[in-house]
Write a structure and sequence with these properties.
By secondary structure, the protein is mostly helical. It contains 4 helices and no strands.
Length: 126
């Protein structure tokens, strides 16, 4: 004969341990992938933003004429700094440990900004 008392009234079953069964599984290295992605996103994002700023600077600088060597020098410097910033992203992304965590979409914007800076540098006539 069954008891009339429901089984979910708060009676604890004795299992021998109080830890959750999920805590017993071994730690897998891919469990830290999100944290590592967040950490690596900081230098990649900052370098990409720096490349974007220097490219904007190179595009927005207009020489007053053929005699304006200072403007041409500024364009050249801004293009070089944009290429270097994009190169930092590319070099960081080429590391195999970074590529496992950060996929190619993280590097594409910086590479495109670097290519645009090279085009601006070549077309500036400096």
């Amino acid at each position: 004969m069954q008891s009339s008392k429901p089984s979910h009234t708060g009676d604890r079953q004795e299992t021998g341990h109080s830890r959750h069964p999920v805590d017993d599984r071994p730690h897998h290295p891919d469990d830290d992938r999100r944290l590592l992605c967040a950490i690596l996103a900081v230098p990649l994002t900052l370098s990409t933003l720096a490349a974007a700023f220097f490219l904007w600077l190179a595009i927005s600088t207009r020489p007053d004429g053929d005699w304006d060597e200072a403007a041409y020098g500024g364009i050249e410097l801004a293009c070089v700094l944009a290429v270097v910033s994009a190169g930092v992203v590319g070099a960081l992304w080429l590391a195999p440990s970074v590529r496992r965590v950060m996929r190619w979409p993280w590097a594409v914007p910086a590479v495109l900004l670097g290519l645009a800076a090279v085009v601006r540098w070549v077309s500036s006539g400096a």
